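User: I'm curious whether this sequence folds into something compact or stays loose and floppy. Could you predict its structure so I can see for myself?
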Amino acid sequence: MTVNGPDPRAAARGVVAIALDMARVDPDRRPTAEMCRWCRKLAEDLGVAPREEIASNRELVFEALRLELIAHHRVDATSKPPSRELSELAN
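Assistant: Here's the prediction. I'll summarize afterward.
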């Protein structure tokens, strides 16, 4: 798996977590443009069509859960997230 950025499974979990929190506070409110962009980008990264319109935080949760399922099915169970190594900055 070649990844530029976070593992798609981790990104999907992040979208779900924030969407659930937003829906818990106000399920009928329109989600922020940033959250809609995040879902759209994740869908594109997964190679699926993004949802055309997300009218409420409740709908945002459904879209986030759909993308999380796709992310987990697209990446086989034996894959590992990309390795990240810390390095010291030169002064």
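Summary: Residues 8-74 form one domain. Residues 7 and 81 are 6 Å apart (CA to CA).
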